[in-house]
Amino acid sequence: MEVGIGLDLGTTRCKAVALGEGRVLAQTRRSYPLLQGEPGQAEQDVSEVFAAAVAVLRELREQLGGVKPAGLAFSGAMHSLLAVDAAGTPLAPALTWADTRPGSVLGGLPLPPLEAYRRTGCPLQAPYYPAKLAWLRRAHPALFERASSFVAIKDYVAFRLTGRWAADVGLASTTGLLNVHAGAWDQEILGALGLPPERLLPVLDATERLGHLSPAMAEATGLPLGLPVYAGSSDGGLANLGAGAGVGEAVITVGTSAALRQVVAQPRLEPGARTWCYFLDRQRWLAGGAVNNAGLLLEWLRSRFYGEYPRGDGFARLFTDAEAVEPGAEGLTLLPYLSGERSPHWRSDLSATVHGLRLRHTRAHLARAGLEAVAFCLAQLWESLCPGLERVKLTGSITASPPWMQILADVLQAEVVPVDAADASAVGAAMLAGGSAGGIPAPANPPLQPNPSLAPVYREARGRFEALFSKLWE
Residues in domain Carbohydrate kinase FGGY C-terminal (predicted)? Predict the structure, then answer.
């Protein structure tokens, strides 16, 4: 039996999955914090990420017993930026997609926004490298000059495991520096930014061998010495792969943030630059959009309003309370923008708002309004990217909550198919590493059907949501 290991390096936790003959044989995970000490800050200490990665690989190896893996591949969270010196030592914590401080430099970037989008598939916005690099250069000029390379967190972990520096085309295409048509660093973009290409990494395809597990890392993880390690791709792209989505099929992933993605056979761009287009590998692209505040919002609601419970019990009570409230949350409207927003607004200055609060409302209404708010944000992307589709696959932490999945089905008025995988992004990475010989894990849960009678209820509630946004922010 050929077994592949997928290592998924997410925003707040890493996961490892072993896949063989279409079955998840073992799975482990570890959490790590975001550093959020000042307004807009959302950074990661990569030493903590690396330590968690080593720990989950060691635990996975113990679960596998005598089963020998054939390879390991990566799934990485998009848009992280880490400055390293010539020895590969991090010079500061890594900026994540959720860090809104680079939004302060957008007005001074020396790039025409629509031209940059047409070349890279990335809107000229705060999560991408043009803004991150300009902000880093302004806020920390000495650090910027000391940096030998600018890399993703996944690239750093891969370097520590193998001793080789290389990027993958999927994550590289989420930087805003890679040409989405040619699959190479865009020389015009780099020239406009004054960034020599030598400060970026060589770019590999998703299935290219990056290297082999080093002796030190084989000892630390218990995995075989010389285990082949493959470049991998972005967590979003590999979630689609792990969910078994073919060209044209849609997948929504809900975790800390949320995203809607379709695999397409050629780059697909939107005239207003409200969505994005990235590589999955050199033969396939992803057209999609992402929202910042999904699990992030629910964690905030849990910690503020259900803090008397242990974490898992608090979430369970939140979902139970929300399910008991009528659709539309009895007129309560919540704008979920705790950390700004990406698609379709691309504004880091947005903040969250609760409107329509009355004496009759309780924390249960806030919970319901929060779940509906995330669904309304995804509905905006659904109408832009997937007109006419009546079915969507669903991955991520939302699949553990039937009430939240039903709200999404009713808001979209589409069939929702939860994918029963340990983690779709990690499964997709494991498939790249040789674990796909038996196919992918089949959905074990029945699809959720939309309730047509709730369509007018949610049209009215979403109308309130969008009217409130317009009054406050347009």
Answer: 250-434
